[in-house]
Amino acid sequence: MTSHRSATPGDSPESAPSAAPSSTAAPSSSAATGAPPAVVESLDSPESIAAEVSVQLEAFLAEKAAEFEAISPDATAIGDALIEFTRGGKRIRPVLLWWGFQLAGGDVRAGADTGPSADVIAGLAQAAGSLELLHAAALIHDDVIDNSDTRRGRPALHRQFEARHQRSGFHGDGASFGVSASIVIGDICLALSEELFERSQESLGDSASARELRAVVRRDVMVGQYLDVLAEVIPLGDARIADRAWEVLSFKSAKYSVEQPLLLGAALAGADDRQLAEISAFGLPLGQAFQLRDDVLGIAGDPEATGKPAGDDIREGKRTVLIAETASRIPADRLEVLAARLGDPDLTDAEVAECVGMITDSGGLAAVESFIADKHAHAATIVDTWAGDGAATDSATGAAASAPVRIGPAAQERLKAFARALSYRSS
């Protein structure tokens, strides 16, 4: 088995920019007239974006919780669980959606604090919040699929409802009740995600392009989840193990965590196809670097930082790029040991540590660190191009072309700092 060839961005199908749907929104004046695009001098801070999104998200969920309670007092647990599950977090996807809107020329802060400007802020926060609900639905189901005990340092939702079953003295199997309740609540969360996005359109205006992108986000994360489930039952010696790992990484996480939120925000601002392509060229490699770092942390991360036990990905049997790179490098007898242990929830800490040693000693970890560096560097180069003199190179012809995204030094630094944080988990 050979190492996966997509260490360099653009080398394989999963590394190619997403096919951006045609935008039906009116193009920006610069696109229509051929004038240079306006320079985006700054981007709102992640902290201010998170605050705006949290306000809209909590208000929406409180409204829904009241509706659940009106149906039945017993349904109060649904709203309480969702409010608590979605509270806090890094808000990475909302931040990127917001920035995609700004990078495409969307004006968030123009005018007074009331009137059209306030409507845009509320609508953008609702669209961003809808991604948080989609993410929450995926995490709730993911924890059930992986039989995870914890999420963000707290009991996973199905474990919380299992404990509720025990406290309440219910009949039947508590674990089964917890799983069933979490599946249903995850489905409710997904439905609420769609409802909140629809609500955002009332403030931002209906965009066929954004609707189409939103459907792509939902589709890709669900298909990626299935590919992840499939990958966990495929033998490590399978010739396509590396390709499968990159498919899961790209479609389950990299796209919907970074690239697609940026694209969705840009579409909401009326981005044209060239702007979407430029933003995709930045977002996908950064999303891949982000997930590759998660894969590293899932093997050898600090439990206090990750909220998961050390080596959890080994016990869960994740066929990540890191595992695929290791499998391609270790002797057959060691591969047999790794394959036997991968997915065993009862591994001792010593057995997990031995697996981590295989991953490190084989060169698998070094290969993934190299992938991360390459993907991060590619994303950073795009940012530098946007901050340059407006000249970019058309990948098909090699000819110089006017860059559809232009940013000032403050926006450049903010994007590059965020890219470093995603790729290396720096503060």
Describe the 3D structure.
The chain has 427 residues and is mainly alpha-helical. The protein has helices at 29-33, 46-71, 76-85, 92-103, 116-146, 157-168, 174-204, 208-231, 241-268, 273-300, 303-306, 312-316, 321-327, 332-341, 349-361, 364-386, 409-424; strands at residues 150-151, 154-155, 391-393, 400-402. The two termini are 37 Å apart. Residues 1-35 and 390-401 have low confidence and may be disordered.
Summarize the structure in short.
The protein has 427 residues and is mainly alpha-helical. It is 67% helix and 2% strand. The protein has a two-stranded antiparallel sheet. A two-stranded antiparallel sheet has the order 3-4.
Order of helix and strand elements from N to C terminus: HHHHHEEHHHHHHHHHHHEEH
Structural class: mainly alpha
Radius of gyration: 22 Å
Strand count, sense and barrel status of the largest sheet are: 2 strands, antiparallel
